[in-house]
Structure formats: structure tokens, C-alpha cells
């Protein structure tokens, strides 16, 4: 288990305030006799409109449509790259009717925000899928290609505001890695963190930031409507159905997948963990989930149980190394 570090004072205050709100959504499901097959509450630890919210609601629809779980609720607890939701989630008790969506973004936020809790403090259930980040600008931006922006960025690194999710998350890491590969000191980043992709979109359209970074699906509708222009995608190869060149294709040797997965609270029994794994595995075999993968351009990457726990430990170490190297 990760060694606990002192929590940031402000984070502690917010956690205290939201704990009561989450508890009010449903008072002790296990005490009322609910089981994972009868009821699940899924926390999306971000604001509505972002990647975790989308993944949680696609999960909700697939579970309902497949008649796998009778009642599935999604609750949003935004803030601090998901670490506010994480700190709240580990305190709900050994309740097998609760799940939390998580992923690469939270790993970075755990380190950057000096979180007193980590994913190792949860019960890993399953990694579901991977998607990719995009660098985006408004349609009226003077930057028509990635190189257009990089040229301006190199001349005045701190003079160009870049908006994305929480500090240390995938968006922040991609901005830092792109800067480094473009010959810019990541310490010069003018990075503005938002609670989710919806807020990044608002900041872009209001020209509060020049460039946005988030998951492709956070911006897909606005790209297709012509309101935004994608400059690059973080995949290691062209993605079928996405007409945006990769960073690698444009001379920036950076690829960064963004995984989504589910964890349960600490302390549940082995039998309860296996039941949750069975529920999620069954969900991934539904036509509704297959459709979600296709529509959202996600890559299926199902990994469950102990193998997923090992992956989290290894990936957290990888993210920590990147953050240290970038000085973030």
C-alpha cells in the first residue's frame, strides 16, 4: 500500500463537505439488503460531460439493457483530478453495491495533489477500455496545424494558455510531454486545470484558453459540427474513423492512451469481488457495450481481478516517473 502523505488543507475541507452529499444519495445499500445484481451506484469522479462521466453512463446503459443489474445510478463527484471522489469513495465502507470509474487521469492527480489515498486503497475490479487524447482549438483559431501552434508556442511558451483536466492527469501529462518533445521546457507550461471536459470546452469557445486537451469524445460533437478543429491525437497509430493525424505522424514522438476502469470500496469479501467481476465481464459481452466501443472509438482492453491490480501498480509507477521527469 502506498505510504500516506499529509493531505492538502483545501482538499480535506472539500472532501468533508462532499462526503455527506454522496452518503445522502443512498443510505447504506448493504444494510438495506441490496446486492450488486439488484442495485449499483457508480461514482464518476468528475463533472458531467467528461470522459469518466461518459464511460459511467455507457456502463449504466449496457447493464440496464442487458438486464444484468436492476437499478444502476451514476453520481458525479468532481474535483482535483478525481482525488476528491477517491478520498470519499474509500470511506463508504465495504459496500459491494458501489463502484467508481477511474483511469490514467487519477493516477497523475494522486501524485501531483499529494493525495492521502491511492488506487491501491480500493478493490480493483476491471479495466474496460482505452481511448485517446486530442489537442484542440476553436474553429476561428489562427492555428490550422499542430506545427502552426508549436511555432508560436516555442517563441513564447508561457504566453499560450492550455486548458485540460486536473493537475497531473492525462491532459496535463500530454501537454508536458508534447512540450518537451517540441523543445519547450515543461516548467514553462501555462496550464489551466478544469474539473472536466465540459468546462474545457466552455473555456475554448470563450477563448479563455487557446488550446484544449481532453479525451476525443469530450470534443467529438463540436469537431463534427465544425466549431472546433483537432490538431493531433495521442494514439500510436491512426485511429479508424477519426480524421486527425497522430502526434507521431507530425514529428512529435508522444503516444498516451487513457484507460478507463472500475474499482470497488476496500474491505469487500472475495466472493463479493468475484460477483462484481462477473457482472462487469457479462456487461462487456453485451451488444450495447460493443456499440459503445464502436461509437466512442474506444479500444477494448478488458483486464480483471489480480491482473488488473498488478496493472494499476505498474501503471502508477510509470505515471509517477513521467511526472518526476517533467517536473510537474
Would you summarize the structure shown here?
Helices cover 41% and strands 20% of the residues. It has 328 residues and is α/β, with parallel strands linked by helices.
Explain what this protein looks like in three dimensions.
The protein has 328 residues and is of the alpha/beta class. The chain has 2 domains: 9-129 and 259-326, D-Maltodextrin-Binding Protein, domain 2; 132-250, D-Maltodextrin-Binding Protein, domain 2 (3-Layer(aba) Sandwich). Helices cover 41% and strands 20% of the residues. Strands 1, 2, 3, 4, 5, 6, 7, 8, 9 and 10 form a 10-stranded mixed sheet that branches. Helix 2 links the parallel strand 1 (39-44) and strand 2 (71-76). Helix 1 (9-25) crosses helix 3 and helix 2 (51-65) runs antiparallel to helix 10. The longest helix has 22 residues, at 305-326. The relative contact order is 0.18. Belongs to the UPF0065 (bug) family. This is Tripartite tricarboxylate transporter substrate-binding protein. Pfam families: TctC.
Amino acid at each position: 500500500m502506498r505510504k500516506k502523505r499529509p493531505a492538502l488543507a483545501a482538499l480535506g475541507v472539500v472532501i468533508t463537505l462532499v462526503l455527506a452529499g454522496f452518503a445522502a444519495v443512498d443510505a447504506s445499500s448493504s444494510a438495506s439488503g441490496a446486492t450488486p445484481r439488484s442495485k449499483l451506484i457508480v461514482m464518476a469522479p468528475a463533472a458531467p460531460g467528461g470522459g469518466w462521466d461518459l464511460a459511467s453512463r455507457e456502463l449504466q446503459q449496457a447493464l440496464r439493457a442487458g438486464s444484468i443489474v436492476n437499478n444502476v445510478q451514476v453520481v458525479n463527484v468532481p474535483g482535483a483530478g478525481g482525488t476528491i471522489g477517491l478520498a470519499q469513495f474509500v470511506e463508504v465502507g465495504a459496500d459491494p453495491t458501489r463502484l467508481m470509474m477511474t483511469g490514467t487521469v487519477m493516477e497523475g492527480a494522486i501524485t501531483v495533489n499529494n493525495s492521502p489515498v491511492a488506487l491501491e486503497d480500493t478493490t480493483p475490479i476491471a479495466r474496460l477500455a482505452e481511448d485517446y487524447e486530442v489537442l484542440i482549438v476553436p474553429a476561428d483559431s489562427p492555428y490550422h496545424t499542430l506545427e502552426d501552434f508549436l511555432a508560436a508556442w516555442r517563441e513564447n511558451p508561457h504566453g499560450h494558455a492550455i486548458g485540460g483536466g486536473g493537475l497531473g492527469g492525462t491532459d496535463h501529462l500530454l501537454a508536458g510531454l508534447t512540450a518537451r518533445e517540441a523543445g519547450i521546457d515543461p516548467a514553462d507550461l501555462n496550464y489551466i486545470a478544469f474539473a472536466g471536459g465540459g468546462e474545457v470546452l466552455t473555456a475554448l469557445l470563450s477563448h479563455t484558453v487557446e488550446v484544449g486537451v481532453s479525451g476525443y469524445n469530450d470534443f467529438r460533437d463540436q469537431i463534427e459540427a465544425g466549431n472546433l478543429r483537432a490538431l493531433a491525437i495521442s494514439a500510436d497509430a491512426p485511429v479508424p474513423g477519426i480524421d486527425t493525424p497522430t502526434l507521431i505522424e507530425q514529428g512529435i514522438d508522444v503516444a498516451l492512451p487513457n484507460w478507463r476502469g472500475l474499482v470497488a470500496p476496500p474491505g469487500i469479501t472475495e466472493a463479493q469481488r468475484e460477483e462484481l467481476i462477473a457482472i462487469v465481464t457479462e456487461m462487456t459481452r453485451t451488444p450495447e457495450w460493443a456499440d459503445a466501443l464502436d461509437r466512442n472509438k474506444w479500444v477494448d482492453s478488458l483486464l480483471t481481478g489480480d491482473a488488473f491490480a498488478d496493472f494499476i501498480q505498474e501503471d502508477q509507477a510509470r505515471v509517477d516517473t513521467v511526472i518526476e521527469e517533467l517536473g510537474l
